[in-house]
């Protein structure tokens, strides 16, 4: 007996897609629902539905603003208020992306891609140092995908509450010219190395850096970089 897709639509909820075999399975399903009148059946064709059973995070509401401490700053901040509580996925997300810091109480994990600070809480996501709203949307959609993939593949992933290793400033400094030429816009090579470790600066920001040392530095940093 061949199966067929079945969509169950709670009046105040989300569509749940099932695949059942025959009428007896349908009857058993509704028996478990105790004939809840808030549910209705709808036949759907294969491939025309999302696998919402794997989607932990379905949406969010975002707010864009400039920091109150200094409204003249050019960069923007963003807070996304999540439609669902995602606390359960945080250890899996941390294992998947390699969080900068993991906090147990209250639970949260931070990431520092490309010089930004991203903090993922159970019910909200905060992002700073944004160029514009388009960049905020790009990061939030990336995080939404990562959150849902981490949740979908949680049985294949060992959860982690450990912080990921970070680039070492002195290791970066060893690969720099160490002339303190200030062509990078920083007062010393040590300060520049610290900014590189934070993800704010890159090899392209050091004009005197030769190709060989630049390649070594890029290879070293590639072990820690998180891109969206």
List keywords for this structure.
single chain; 228 residues; alpha+beta; TATA-Binding Protein; 3-methyladenine DNA Glycosylase II, Chain A, domain 3; 3 domains; six-stranded antiparallel beta sheet; three-stranded antiparallel beta sheet; 29% helix; disordered N terminus
Beta-strand percentage?
15-25%
Tell me roughly what share of residues is in helical segments: 25-40%
The CATH superfamily title of the largest domain = TATA-Binding Protein
Tell me the span between the first and last alpha carbons: 45 Å
Tell me the number of helical segments per DSSP (H or I, 4 or more residues long): 6
Q: What is the structural class?
A: alpha+beta
Write a short abstract of this structure.
The protein is α+β, with helices and mostly antiparallel strands and 228 residues long. The chain has helices at residues 22-33, 90-97, 133-152, 169-174, 189-198, 211-221; strands spanning 3-8, 16-21, 41-43, 60-65, 76-82, 101-104, 107-111, 118-120, 124-130.
Could you explain how this protein is built, in words?
The protein is α+β, with helices and mostly antiparallel strands and 228 residues long. It has three domains: 3-51; 60-156, TATA-Binding Protein; 169-221, 3-methyladenine DNA Glycosylase II, Chain A, domain 3. Helices cover 29% and strands 21% of the residues. The protein is built from six helices and nine strands, in the order ββαβββαββββαααα. It has helices at 22-33, 90-97, 133-152, 169-174, 189-198, 211-221; strands at residues 3-8, 16-21, 41-43, 60-65, 76-82, 101-104, 107-111, 118-120, 124-130. The strands form two sheets. A six-stranded antiparallel β-sheet has the order 4-5-9-8-7-6, with helices on one face. Strands 2-1-3 form a three-stranded antiparallel β-sheet, with helices on one face. The chain is globular and about 50 Å long. The model is unreliable at 1-27 and 29-52 (pLDDT under 50).
């Amino acid at each position: 007996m061949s199966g067929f897709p079945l969509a169950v639509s709670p009046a105040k909820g989300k569509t749940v897609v099932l695949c059942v075999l025959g009428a007896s399975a349908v009857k058993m399903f509704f028996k478990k629902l105790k004939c809840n009148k808030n549910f209705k059946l709808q036949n759907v064709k294969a491939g025309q539905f999302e696998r919402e059973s794997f989607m932990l995070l379905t949406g969010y509401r975002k707010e864009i603003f400039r920091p109150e401490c200094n409204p003249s700053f050019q960069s923007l901040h963003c807070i996304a208020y999540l439609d669902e509580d995602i606390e359960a996925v945080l250890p899996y997300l941390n294992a998947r992306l390699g969080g900068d810091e993991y906090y147990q109480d209250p639970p949260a994990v931070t990431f520092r891609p490309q010089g930004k600070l991203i903090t993922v809480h159970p019910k909200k996501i905060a992002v700073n140092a944004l160029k514009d709203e388009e960049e905020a949307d790009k990061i939030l959609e990336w995080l939404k995908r990562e959150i849902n993939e981490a949740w979908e593949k949680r049985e294949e992933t060992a959860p982690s509450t450990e912080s990921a290793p970070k680039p070492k400033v002195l290791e970066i400094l060893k690969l720099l010219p160490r002339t303190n030429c200030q062509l990078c816009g920083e007062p010393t090579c040590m300060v520049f190395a610290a900014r590189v470790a934070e993800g704010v600066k890159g090899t392209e920001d050091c004009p005197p850096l030769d190709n060989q040392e630049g390649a070594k530095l890029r290879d070293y940093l590639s072990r820690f970089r998180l891109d969206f």
